[in-house]
Write a structure and sequence with these properties.
Chain B: InterPro entries: Cell_cycle_FtsW-rel_CS, FtsW/RodA. The complex is a heterodimer of chains A (618) and B (429). Chain A has 23 helices and 18 strands. Chain A is α+β, with helices and mostly antiparallel strands and 618 residues long. In chain A, strands 2, 3, 4, 5, 10 and 14 form a six-stranded mixed beta sheet that branches. Chain A has a five-stranded antiparallel beta sheet with strand order 12-11-18-17-16, with helices on both faces. A three-stranded antiparallel beta sheet of chain A has the order 1-8-9. Chain B is mainly α and 429 residues long. The radius of gyration of chain B is 23 Å and the shape is globular. The two termini of chain B are 19 Å apart. The chains are: A alpha+beta (618), B mainly alpha (429).
């Protein structure tokens, strides 16, 4: 009786069992959202940020290091503050800040930690330690920010700041998270991947109350953080600080290079700023002011400011003209027929032309170089001649990047055929008479101070250079990219340099350089330049190297609105050279005079904010 | 008289094997749920016996004592004393509101020293016994209403008392006696109506009324199309069909009213969570959301014994008791839960097979009562962990942590095994 009902009942059971298995198959095998949700629930990924690499000068003096600071975190679910007033007093925050931050943390997650207060100093941390027992649900994580030994060298060092939203979305490998710090400019940016080290990751299991319950998978997935590599720069901090002090009250650049190695000894961008203002909690306060300052203290001028080289470019013309075979030490040009003027001297040979910086001489020399061919019309001949000239000049690093290890190097402009075709909107639209200004370093040619310092190094080496660089060793092995070890030849034979160097020596001893720019006991050779400036007084330029035999330092100095090259830039360069070679300066009067000399344009003096202090003012 | 020495030979060891397997697996999962990778407890540590896993060991040990007791009692005792047991349990249920204590928000427990007992758990066994005894009378014919209402009374009184103490979940278990009654001759219309009612209830919650109406009209149309000619010619047929549709629609519309006005707030929310899985995942839907996360994250092979993170770190409330299935799902994956379901169905099949072997209607009916109760727990418990059933305090038999639950299921099962071991001694009536 009714025995078949057993089968019916079991059929029903079986159907329910199948339904369950089907649903479980869907939950466990097909749908993977639950797996992620589970990881979100129970696994807390803790990123451990290692210490950023430190930066040293060429003698091992510390320039940049890290100061540990303490970030306060809150876990809202566990946070109990009985006495809000006491809490605010201890942490020196306002009641509004407390309420706002607590609410935001709670909205984010009740069980996950949120940042509550950033960058407490060691002293602040010590003072709140005792009170922490009264505030469950709050804990500290150590962090670090950059600390600068010197106020000098800020522009080339660059700074470290929270990653910007655009950089965050543009990053390729998803390394940075919101709020992470990243090198923004200078070597902090160029060597970001070296300095930042390797992040550690810890996977911790947490229970539903956010309490940690040990390492996930026994810590097999954890990665220990590795500190960033230290950078050993070629900067001579003493010279850097001295150069900075000379460049105060001025706008401009100073770059000193060791010619035999391409190592940058000093690099001044004036006006500068105090890098320590851009660390930690101060950043947002000062960054805006610095960014809006009309004197652009944040700009690192040596690799990225644009100037016309002026008469310093005549050195290139003298070298290229000889190499191409159009002029020689005995070549003489008179002033006749030149649209550029000169005064106070008669016809000169090449050495003399460099000594007195004769404009017509280099006009005629350039004209010979450009109008070489006798076939075709003047337009075709101009184009052919210019291209051959430009190809050789490009070897000196003009119109392209030298490859300095600073993030913001600019190419500059070396006008060639392509360039003029685009300026004059077509081929055969221009000829020599349109472009002769570049013969004396005016017109369309644009350079950076770094390129001119490199030019001084090329002449010092008689025909080659090593790409200028700030960092000469990375990490424990002090290794370096072979690029910064390999000489680059400029394609001008060494013999052609003799007459140029003779002329440069004359320029210093009895040429365009004024008495303040002469060092009695050091044979420095150099060339002045005056870069025309439509907006105001001309810029003063000087490039040099010393000593003449076995050169140890090549230097370029640009002082904006200081007028003639021999009067401002040359004395400053001579002081730096003297200090570097003798480790002391005997010409105290000259030193005092140029330290106090103020070449700041009026417009800047008025609008300038207090923040952008000269970097050496202690 | 039967000699208890012979019990060994007659007891169904397959069923006992299932029982031992389930209890052991259950204990492993309870151990895993309380296991802390930071501070694993050892058996020698006294603190271990304060944890659920330790206490469950005690419950398991005492269950074996209970089993021995049941096996040595004369098999006729259960039939003879069914009424007394039943009345005793009714008394306990009546006394709960006055003498009971509250545990986990449920005022349905008795406390004897350190032991807490929930009489509702044992009322199922008592009811099954009395119902079986009633049906043992050969005159009782479940086709007739005169007997039907008496059977309903036996089921209904404890059920109402349990509803009275606000244990709706436990009370619903009594619906499982439909399986017993169906096997013993209750017309199929009753379970059909029951299932139809549930379908109607669920569809009323899930879909709009006009869709139900549409479906009903379509079904009626199909019915008209295929019914015998003589019915088609009878105008009353159409009247009856319309009437049926009207009644069903009224009931469907009543569902909303019942949900909103009759059910209590927490019951309403449990239903709401069921039909809308995304509803309030941090609050009311927390338990079912977390339960699904735990099971779902197990994947095909599971995270391995003690490897679960969701169940171990308290993300799923009631982890060891009602939600023990989550641990199986998380740590043993799809393979584990599938095997568990297959084993459980195999176990039920074995019990039904044994029940049908009984010569006495008492033992057979009791057997099907047992099967029904076990199946109902299986259905609701697993169903609620995977979001197919509303959350109710229904443990998974033999697996879930808890003394009352383990004891009551052990007693329920072993009374049947005791009866079964004496099936040749029973008089077939």
């Amino acid at each position: 009786m009714f025995t078949q009902r057993r089968n019916l009942i079991f059929l029903f059971f079986g159907l329910i069992g199948l339904l369950f298995i089907g649903k479980l198959f869907f939950l466990q095998v097909i749908d993977d959202t639950y797996e992620k949700a589970a990881d979100n629930n129970a696994i807390r990924k803790i990123i451990q940020i290692p210490f950023r690499g430190e930066v040293y000068d060429r003698f091992g003096k510390l320039i940049v290091y890290n100061t540990p600071v303490y970030d306060l975190y809150i876990i809202p679910r566990k946070a109990v503050v009985k006495d809000t007033n006491q809490f605010c007093r201890v942490f020196r925050i306002t009641r509004e800040y407390f309420i706002k931050t607590t609410q935001r943390a709670r909205a984010y997650s009740r069980v996950k930690p949120s940042l509550f207060l950033k960058h407490l100093s060691k002293e602040d941390f010590a003072s709140v330690q005792d009170a922490m027992v009264d505030f469950p649900g709050f804990f500290f994580e150590t962090n670090a920010f950059r600390t600068y030994q010197s106020r000098s060298f800020s522009n080339a060092l660059g700074y470290v700041a929270e990653i910007s939203p655009t950089a965050l979305t543009d990053q390729k490998d998803d390394y940075y998270r919101q709020g992470d710090y990243v090198g923004i400019s200078g070597i902090e940016s160029f060597y970001e991947e070296t300095l930042r080290g390797q992040r550690g990751v810890k996977y911790r299991m947490v229970n539903s109350n956010g309490v940690e319950k040990g390492d996930y998978k026994n810590g097999s997935l954890n990665i220990n953080p590795v500190s960033g590599n230290n950078l050993y720069t070629s900067i001579d901090l003493a010279i850097q600080e001295y150069a900075d002090s000379l460049m105060q009250h001025k706008v401009g650049s100073l770059v000193a290079i060791e010619p035999s190695t391409g190592e940058i000894l000093a690099m001044v961008s004036a006006p500068s700023y105090d890098a320590s203002l851009l660390t930690g909690n101060n950043f947002s306060k000062y960054y805006q002011q610095l960014a809006l300052d009309p004197m652009k203290p944040l700009l690192n001028r040596p690799p990225s400011a644009y100037y016309r080289p002026g008469s310093t470019f005549k050195l290139v013309q003298a070298l290229v003209g000889q190499q191409l075979g159009f002029i020689g030490p005995g070549t003489v040009f008179s002033h006749a027929g030149a649209p550029v003027k000169c005064h106070g001297h008669g016809p000169v040979d090449l050495r003399g032309a460099i000594r007195v910086s004769c404009n017509p001489y280099f006009y005629h020399a350039f004209r010979k170089m450009v109008y070489d061919k006798t076939t075709g019309d003047t337009y075709e001949r101009s184009a052919q001649g210019l291209q051959r000239w430009a190809d050789l000049v490009a070897n000196f690093g003009f119109g392209r990047k030298l490859g300095v290890d600073l993030g913001n190097e600019k190419k500059g402009i070396l006008p060639n055929v392509e360039y003029y075709n685009s300026v004059y909107k077509g081929e055969k639209m221009w000829k020599f008479s349109n472009i002769y200004s570049i013969s004396i370093g005016e017109g369309e040619i644009v350079v950076s101070p770094l390129k001119m310092a490199n030019l001084a190094a090329i002449i010092a080496n008689r025909g080659w250079y090593i790409p200028p660089h700030v960092v000469k060793g990375i990490g424990l092995k002090k290794s370096i990219d072979p690029f910064y070890k390999t000489p680059v030849k400029v394609g001008v034979e060494a013999k052609y340099f003799n007459v140029v160097i003779d002329g440069m020596e004359d320029a210093v001893t009895h040429g365009t350089v004024e008495a303040d720019g002469r060092i009695p006991d050091i044979k420095m050779v150099g060339k002045t330049g005056t870069s025309q400036n439509q907006k105001g007084k001309d810029h003063s330029i000087f490039i040099a190297f010393a000593p003449r035999d076995n050169p140890k330092i090549a230097i370029a100095v640009f002082v904006e609105n200081a007028g003639f090259g021999g009067s401002a830039a040359a004395p400053i360069a001579s002081l730096v050279v003297e200090k570097y070679l003798k480790r002391k300066v005997d010409r105290k009067a000259v030193e005092t005079k140029f330290m106090n000399m103020n070449y700041l344009p009026n417009v800047y003096s008025v609008t300038r904010k207090k923040v952008a202090i000269d970097s050496t003012k202690k | 008289m039967t000699d208890s020495n012979h019990i060994q030979g007659r007891i169904d060891w397959i069923t006992v094997g299932f029982y031992v397997l389930f209890v052991c697996l259950g204990w492993m999962n309870i151990y895993s749920a309380v296991y802390s990778p930071d501070a694993p407890l050892s058996f020698s540590d006294p603190a271990f016996y304060d944890s659920n896993a330790g206490k469950q060991l005690v419950w398991i040990g005492t269950s074996f004592v209970l089993i021995v007791c049941i096996l040595v009692i004369d098999f006729r005792f259960f039939e003879s004393f069914a009424l007394f047991i039943y009345l005793g349990l009714l008394l306990l249920l009546l006394a709960v509101p006055f003498l009971g204590v509250t545990i986990n928000g449920s005022h349905s427990w008795f406390k004897f020293g350190g032991v807490t007992i929930q009489p509702a758990e044992f009322a199922k066994t008592a009811t099954a016994l009395l119902l079986a005894k009633y049906l043992n009378d050969p005159l009782v014919n479940l086709n007739k209403f005169a007997f039907q209402w008496k059977a309903a009374l036996i089921i209904g009184i404890p059920m109402l008392l349990i509803i009275g103490s606000n244990e709706t979940g436990s009370a619903l278990v009594f619906a499982s006696f439909l399986i017993l009654l169906y096997r013993e001759g209750l017309p199929g219309t009753y379970p059909a109506l029951f299932i139809g009612g549930i379908v109607l209830f669920v569809s009323a919650l899930l879909v709009k009324a006009w869709i139900i109406l549409l479906v009903l009209v379509l079904l009626a149309g199909l019915f008209v199309l295929f019914m015998p000619i003589y019915l088609q010619r009878d105008p009353k047929t159409y009247l009856r069909l319309s009437g049926a549709i009207a009644v069903i629609m009224t009931l469907a519309l009543l569902v909303d009213w019942v949900v909103n006005n009759v059910l209590q707030e927490h019951q309403r929310n449990r239903i709401r969570v069921l039909i809308d899985p995304g509803f309030d995942p941090r609050g009311l839907g927390y338990q079912v959301t977390q339960s699904k996360i735990a099971i779902g994250s197990g994947g095909f092979w599971g995270k391995g014994f003690l490897g679960g993170t969701q169940t171990k770190f308290d993300f799923v409330p009631e982890q060891s008791t009602d939600m023990v299935f989550c641990t199986i799902g998380e740590e043993h994956g799809f393979v584990g839960v599938m095997l568990m379901i297959i084993f459980f169905l195999g176990f039920l099949w074995r019990l039904m097979y044994l029940a049908d072997l009984q010569r006495s209607r008492f033992a057979r009916a009791y057997g099907f009562g047992l099967v029904g109760i076990l199946f109902f727990h299986f259905l609701v418990n697993i169903g609620m962990t995977i979001g197919l059933m509303p959350i109710m305090g229904i443990p998974l038999p033999f697996f879930s942590y808890g003394g009352s639950s383990l004891w009551s299921f052990t007693i329920l099962l072993f009374i049947f095994l005791k009866l079964d071991s004496h099936r040749s001694d029973m008089l077939s009536r």
